[in-house]
Amino acid sequence: MPGNAGLHAEVGGLSIGSPVIVASGVWPMEPSLWPEKALEGVGALCSKGLTLEPRTGNSGKRICESYSGLLNSIGLQNPGIDHFVKNELIGLQTCDKPVLVNVSFESIRELAAILEKLLPSRSLVGAVELNVSCPNVSRGGMTWGLDPEGLEKAVSFARKIWQGPLWVKLSPQTSSIGEFSRICQDCGAQAVVVANTWLGMAIDNDEEKPFFERIFAGLSGPAIFPLALRAVWEAAGAVDIPVIGCGGITRPEDALSMMLAGASAVEVGTALFHDLSLPAAICSRLSAHIEARSLGSVGEITGRARR
Ligand SMILES: Cc1cc2nc3c(=O)[nH]c(=O)nc-3n(C[C@H](O)[C@H](O)[C@H](O)COP(=O)(O)O)c2cc1C
């Protein structure tokens, strides 16, 4: 990345060339489908959410645009962990950047089986990113990440099995993102990703019924940026491990704000659907800030708005 001095970062056990990470679920896991230059400015990539068994995802409509965001009801469509390890994980190494593996699970047994299947490929996995926005079947379908006990159990369990970098991607709809981030830290997570999508919905007025079969869907994109920024601020005030800012980053200024609020790196998702040059533009903006303030590296941007 010529002209982007000082962007290298050590975050949550990962060494990355820039603090811009492609968020889970927005990029194909097949590198031959990526447009040329798509990786410019990208420091690491995150896989689609992987489950133990392959999943075909939700039926019915899956995507709906709102004024300032995107609703998705994909339903974790993915090839399953075995297929991923044998095929996509190896292919993804061609990008020569750390690959985060986003793990989704509905029971501790499922979590254990997924991590055990990843262990032999440990050297190909930059970090495991636990997606705790899925239902815990043993607690009546309550979301792992909205239940302090469930969260504690899942993160401590993952920590016992997975010795590599372990990140937890939180749901933003907790009663206290600070408290939930602290649970992750206390259970051995090396970073928290703040955060996943917000639940929203749309109505099909002609049909006079909910747009999605599952009624609610995940809202991402610019609509959630101020909410995510507030969550990053709170999380960063509550923990010592790095906070990765995620949610609605659409302009380079958004990424800078996230870092000033306390993020050590950012994940970018929805914005990439219409602007593949965003990671490179974020890098230029961060570099310009480093230079303008005579900082040594991007890490020194983190939390400057909190002083
Ligand atoms: C189409 C789509 C699929 C997604 N799939 C996943 C997923 O499998 N696992 C996950 O943790 N997050 C998933 N997400 C959430 C994103 O990774 C990200 O946390 C969220 O969209 C907020 O960031 P953004 O506003 O920059 O998109 C998905 C988002 C979208 C739009």
Task: Provide a descriptive summary of the structure in words.
With 307 residues, the chain is α/β, with parallel strands linked by helices. The chain has a single domain (9-57, 77-198, 220-306), classed as Aldolase class I (TIM Barrel), CATH 3.20.20.70. It is 28% helix and 21% strand. It has helices at 81-92, 108-118, 148-161, 177-186, 225-238, 252-261, 278-292, and strands at residues 9-11, 14-16, 20-22, 44-46, 63-66, 69-72, 99-104, 127-131, 135-136, 142-143, 166-169, 191-194, 198-201, 203-204, 209-210, 216-220, 243-246, 263-268. A hairpin with a 5-residue loop joins strand 9 and strand 10. Helix 4 (177-186) packs across helix 5. The longest helix has 15 residues, at 278-292. The model has no long low-confidence stretch (mean pLDDT 96). Bound molecules: flavin mononucleotide (FMN). Flavin mononucleotide binds next to strand 6.
Strand arrangement, largest sheet? 3-4-7-8-11-12-17-18
Bound molecules: flavin mononucleotide
CATH architecture classification name:
Alpha-Beta Barrel
Relative strand content? 15-25%
Kindly name the structural category.
alpha/beta
Percent of residues in helices comes to 25-40%
- Number-wise, the strands total 18
**CATH level 3 topology:** TIM Barrel
- What pattern of helices and strands is seen along the backbone? EEEEEEHEHEEEHEHEEEEEHEHEH
A few lines on this structure:
By secondary structure, the chain is of the alpha/beta class. Helix content is 28%, strand content 21%.
Keywords, please?
single chain, 307 residues, alpha/beta, TIM Barrel, 7 helices, 28% helix, binds flavin mononucleotide
